[in-house]
Structure formats: structure tokens, C-alpha cells
Amino acid sequence: MAEAGSPRCMMWCRRNATSFPGNLHLVMVLRPTGFFQRTFTDIGFRFSQEDFLLKLPVVMLSSVSELLKYIDEKQLTPEFGGTLEYCHSEWVIFRTAIESFALTVKETAQMLQSFGMELAETQLPDETYSIERILALRTEKYYQLKEDITAVTKEGKMLLCSLEEPDMEDLEEDKQQERSSDWETVHRLLTQLHEMETAFDGFWEKHQLKMEQYLQLWKFEQNFQELSKALEFLTTQQRELLDTGENLSQVRQRLSELDNLEQTAQDLTAKTHIVILHGHQMAASHHYALNLICQQCNELRHHSDILLEEIKRKHNRLQQTSDLLTSLQQALECCDEGVYLLANQPLDKCQSREGAQKALQDIEKFLESSSLHLNIDPQALSSNFHLILTPELKARVQMVQIKLENVRSMFENQQTCFRKLADKQVRPVQLVAPRPECPARSKSPLFSPKHGNVHLSLIVQKYSRVGRRNRIVGEGCCMGENSLSGLCWRAPMTSLHHLFISILQTCLCPILKRIPQKQ
């Protein structure tokens, strides 16, 4: 419905007919009461009626009473003879607020869509600091958008409350319908805004989780690369460290180096376990790179276990080598001490029974204190250390075995000699009265002064030959040994010589006393 007061009215009708072809079904034109205005209206509609009627039907009304035939007076304002209370300024305020709120909701939706596209299309850098910086900036922008959404929601709720004033029951039915339509519009916009906010929150939660997981994965991979390089470096050092040695000092030096390497490996393994635990926590939180994390955790565990096992194996091998070389060295030292003991026993004191017993006690005491080293079994050593025996170690074991046999043989010979001296019984000297001088011709020419010296010299020569023959045999047995081994053979030979002299004195003393002395 329009009042035909000027050509502007017809322009308004045309614009509305074009803009709202689905809502306008009939146009009622109330002719003005003035003569000139009525004339201009008729002329204007006469020239534009055909074009206008193609779009909407037009009814020309001459008065307000004719208008009441088409529209109820309750739906018309007092200007057109109706009773509907209408405030155009209030309607403009509400309409402007609703349109402004709708525009704000639309702009908010566009901002959320733009931010979502930015999150989806931006590629993440390969640097921890840059990733953390981007995550912080995006989080800050997210909270700004949340504040904007909260402000728009608050504005819409205030507008909705203004459309739900308590005095709506006092309003007329038409005005209530208009208010109800506005309320539904605002409520629909608020619902759309809430749905957008919910979808945006869900999208941000997924994006933030992905960003955090990406950052965790990047840090985990950095730790993985560092630990892998460190494990590879220690593995190379472990391979370069030999598990054998030529002597005891070299073996101990390598054991010390291996202990330092093992300590470093233990510290690195502790860090590896922390990284593996972190990886398991990431996998338990349903990380998107679950398979990669599990694979890298298994690699770290495998490398660290192999490194520790190899270090432990080499440590055991070096420790066994050290124990074997220590046993051999102790056996050699014990042999040297035994040879030194035999070589430094005082021979003059050992000729008596007490001296021989004292020397025999010293030997037995030494053998008792060093039995652990002198009585080692080379076959048992070879059996216990067969895993670490190298050709050099086998040759050393054989050398020690030969020396132990020689030293044990020396001690057995010396003990036998000293036992004979200690068990020797001293025969008492029989005193015989001197006989008178025998006649010149004796019946026993054997004891004549002429033959006495001859028989005595024969006896001494006989025992001297026996002693010399025994000494030659002893020296032949000791051939091939060191100089200290020869000293221990001279001692029993000298004692045997003194024994022979003592026997001669004991046996020949009565005979010599019977020989008359020359006047």
C-alpha cells in the first residue's frame, strides 16, 4: 500500500516490486486529495501502468474508506484511519540493531573461516623455536577471536532481551507478531553464532593438539638423533678397544679405559631410557605418529642394549685375562722367592743337625705359605680360561709350568738332602789303648806305615770320585735353568762333600791311631 503523493512514490513501488516479488501480491494506491497531485498521479500511472502491471496488480483508491474495504482498521495506523499504534523511530532502531547484529555475525563467520584456512594452509617450520612461536601467536589470535565471539554473543543476547520486554502482553496482536518475527531472527542469528563457535572450538582443539604433538615429535626426533649419534660414537670406541693384552699392565690399562667407557655408556643409557619413556607416553596419548615413535624407541633400546652387552663381554674377558696373568705373575714371583731362599741359605750352618733342621723348617714354611701359587695346575688354568687363551697366553702358561716343575724339583732335592743331614746319627768314638811297637815285619802289611798312607789316599780318592760323579749328574740335571737354579745344586753337593769327610774321619780314626808314629 502506498500513498500516491509524487512520482517518488511510483519509484518506491517499482523498487519494492523488483526487490520483493515474492512478498508483494497487491499494490493499493491511495490518491491524494489535492487537484494537482491527483492530476500528476493519473498522468504518471497512465504512462507507466503497463510496465508496472507486468509485475504487480495495482488498485487505485480514492479515499481511506475504500482502503478499509481491503484492510482491517486494526492493521492500519491512525494516519490511514486505523487503530494500530506504530512508532517509526522505534522500528528503525530495532531494525538497524537487527541488521547490524546480522552483519556482525556474518563478519565473525568470515573471520573464523579465514583463520581456519590460515591454520590449514600454513606449513610448519623445522625448528623448535619457530614452532613454539607460531603456536603462541595462533593461540593468542584464537583467544582474541573468542573474545570477539563473546562480545557479539553478548550483543545478541541484549537485543534478544529487548525484544522480550515484559509489556509485550499489553501490545496489540500485530505488533506482537512483528516483535516475534524480530525475536526469531535474532535468536536464529545467535544459534548460528553458537554453532560457529562450537565448530571453531572443536577445530582449534584438534589443531592445537596436532601442533603440540608435532612439537613433541620434533623434540623427540631431535633427542633421538642426538642419542643415536652418541651411541654410535661409543660403539666405535668400544670396537677400537681390544679385549686382550700382552702383559698385565696393558690389560689393567684397557680395563680402566673400559670402565670409563662403561660409565659413559651407563649415563647415556639413562638418558635413553628417559627418551624411551617419553616416547611411550606419547604413544599412549594416541599420537598421530605412533608407528614412527615406537620404531625409534625400539632402535634406541636395541642399540643401547648391544653396547652394554659388548662392553660387559669385553670387561669379563679382560678381567679373566687379568686374573690369569696375575696368577702367572704370582707364580713366577713365588718361584723367584723360592730360588732366592735356596740360594741364600748359609751352608756352614746347615752342616750341623740343628742347622739342617732349621733350613728344612724354613723350606717347609715357605712351601706352606706359597702352596697356592706353587701348586697351581696348568691344565686347570687352561680349562678355566680356555675362552680367552691366545697363542701368546698359552706359551706363557707353558713357560710358567716348566719353571714351576723345576722349582718344585729343586725344593724336593734340597729337602731330601737336609732330611739326611737332620737324620744323621753321630757315632761315639771308641778309645783304644795304644799297643807296643810292632816288630819290623808285621803279619798285616796292610796297616804298616808303609801302606797306611796309600790306603787312606785310596779311600779319599774313591769318595772324591763318587762326589764328583754325583756333582756332574746334578749339574747335568740343572742344565738349561737360570743361574739361580745352579746355586741350589751347589749347596747339596758341598754338604755331601762334608758328609763324606765326616764319614772318613769317623771310620778311619781308630785305624789311624793304631799306626805307630815315627820316632
TrEMBL record:
> From the UniProt record, which GO molecular function terms apply?
guanyl-nucleotide exchange factor activity
What the entry lists under InterPro entries is as follows: CRAL-TRIO_dom (IPR001251), CRAL-TRIO_dom_sf (IPR036865), RhoGEF_Guanine_NuclExch_SF (IPR051336), Spectrin_DBS (IPR056466)
The entry's cellular-component GO terms read: cytoplasm
From what superkingdom does this record's organism come?
Answer: Eukaryota
**Gene Ontology BP terms:** dendrite development
Ranges for domain CRAL-TRIO:
25-88
**Keywords in UniProt for this one?**
Guanine-nucleotide releasing factor
Protein name, per record: CRAL-TRIO domain-containing protein
Origin organism of this chain?
Laticauda laticaudata
